[in-house]
Write a structure and sequence with these properties.
With about 130 residues, this protein is of the alpha+beta class. It folds into two domains: about 30 residues; about 100 residues, Cytochrome b5-like heme/steroid binding domain (Flavocytochrome B2, Chain A, domain 1), CATH 3.10.120. About 40% of the residues lie in helices and about 25% in strands. It has five helices and seven strands. A five-stranded mixed β-sheet has the order 3-7-6-5-4. Strand 4 and strand 5 form a beta hairpin. The longest helix is centred in the N-terminal third of the chain and has 28 residues. The chain binds protoporphyrin IX containing FE (HEM). The site of protoporphyrin IX containing FE has 18 residues, from helix 3, helix 4 and helix 5.
Length: about 130
C-alpha cells in the first residue's frame, strides 16, 4: 500500500472516531433528565437527576425534611431514605390526606402500618427516592 493511501485512511479513521465521540458527548449532554411515566394510578414525571441510587446519592439530615411539609413540597423519610412525594399527593389511590400526613416528618411508622409489605405501594415509593438520611 502506498504511503499516501495509509495517511488518507488514517485521517479518515480519525475523523470517523472523532465524529462518534462528538455524537456521544452531545447525546449525553442533551439526553432528557425527566421522563413521563404512566402507571395504573396516573401520570407522573420522574427526574433522573434526583433519582440517584448510587453511593453518591444525596444525603439529608432530619433537619432538611420539616421545611417540606405541605402539598407544594412534600418530603418524607421512610426507613432511612428520603422521598419527595409532592407529585404523589394528588395521585395516591388512598387519597391526599394520607400522603399529606407524611410530609415533613419521618413517616416510617405510618407507612409501615398501612402498606408495610404491600408490593405496589413499595414499588411506587421507590420512584420518589431523592436520597438517604445520614
Ligand atoms: C400514612 C400513609 C398512607 C396511608 C394511610 C395510605 C392509605 C392508603 C389507602 C387507604 C389506600 C386504598 C386501598 C387500600 O386500602 O390498600 C391506599 C392505596 C395505595 N397506596 Fe397508600 N397510603 C399511605 C402512603 C402511601 C405511600 C407513601 C405510597 C407510595 C408512594 C402509597 C401507595 C399506594 C398505592 C400504590 C395504593 C394502591 C394499592 C393497590 O392498588 O393495590 N401509599 N393507600
Amino acid at each position: 500500500m502506498k504511503k499516501t493511501s495509509i495517511i488518507v485512511l488514517s485521517l479518515f479513521g480519525l475523523i470517523v472516531i472523532g465524529g462518534l465521540v462528538w455524537a456521544y458527548s452531545n447525546y449525553k449532554a442533551y439526553a432528557p433528565t425527566t421522563y413521563i411515566v404512566e402507571n395504573e394510578t396516573g401520570t407522573t414525571t420522574i427526574n433522573t437527576t434526583t433519582k440517584t441510587e448510587t453511593p453518591g446519592a444525596p444525603t439529608y439530615t432530619l433537619a432538611d425534611v420539616p421545611t417540606h411539609n405541605n402539598a407544594t413540597s412534600c418530603y418524607t423519610v421512610i426507613r432511612g431514605k428520603v422521598y419527595d412525594l409532592t407529585m404523589w399527593v394528588a395521585m395516591h389511590p388512598g387519597g391526599k390526606p394520607a400522603i399529606l400526613s407524611l410530609c415533613g416528618i419521618d413517616g416510617t411508622e405510618k407507612f409501615n402500618k398501612k402498606h408495610g409489605s404491600d408490593s405496589k405501594p413499595n414499588t411506587n415509593l421507590d420512584r420518589f427516592k431523592i436520597g438517604v438520611l445520614n
